[in-house]
Amino acid sequence: MKAKVTWLEGMRFEGQSESGHKLILDGTNPGQGASPMEAVLLGAGGCSAIDVVSILEKSRQQISGCEVELAAERAEQAPRVFTNINMHFIVTGQDLSEKRVARAIELSMEKYCSVMKMLDKALVATSSYEIHQA
């Protein structure tokens, strides 16, 4: 996998993935794009949400929505790494099995989400969920 980050101006950069997708990163708070740490947090949430949806679809659950609310804490001193991340999943669908939703989240957090597997060596990762029947 390859990517490129190009300085635009000030503390604003454009990231481009190998597949051609672009993302604005901004070190100004607030800036015109996500900070690099926000991008990492979004990547963790996106990676895990993809896993959860995929696992639930493969287990024939009638899922119609999945959101992940992320809350992270950072170290006080530089480097201000994440020390804790909580992912709260809101899964919507028809006749969803609570057992299968819980298992899908567990599998993502502990086995499949490559972003969380990298991060969990440096922080405490927790998850919670709620199920909305549609």
Describe this structure in words.
- The chain is of the alpha+beta class and 134 residues long.
- It has two domains: 1-34, N-terminal domain of TfIIb; 36-133, K homology (KH) domain (GMP Synthetase, Chain A, domain 3, 2-Layer Sandwich), CATH 3.30.300.
- Helix content is 33%, strand content 40%.
- The protein has three helices and six strands; from the N terminus they run βββαββααβ.
- The chain has helices at residues 36-58, 98-112, 114-119, and strands spanning 3-9, 12-17, 22-26, 62-74, 82-94, 124-133.
- α1 (36-58) crosses α2.
- It is globular and about 50 Å long.
- The N and C termini lie far apart (38 Å).
- Pfam families: OsmC.
- This is OsmC family protein.
CATH architecture term of the largest domain: 2-Layer Sandwich
Give the N-terminus to C-terminus distance in angstroms: 38 Å
In CATH, the homologous superfamily of the largest domain goes by the name K homology (KH) domain
| Range of helix content | 25-40%
Q: Whole-number average pLDDT? A: 96
Question: Count of helical segments?
Answer: 3
Spatial shape = globular
The count of domains is 2
Backbone CA Rg: 17 Å
Strand order of the largest sheet: 1-2-3
* Oligomeric description of these chains: single chain
What structural class do you assign from the helix and strand content?
Answer: alpha+beta
Largest sheet: 3 strands, antiparallel
Number of strands: 6
CATH class of the largest domain: Alpha Beta
| Low-confidence residue ranges | none
What is the percentage of strand-forming residues?
35-45%
H and E order: EEEHEEHHE
CATH topology of the largest domain: GMP Synthetase, Chain A, domain 3
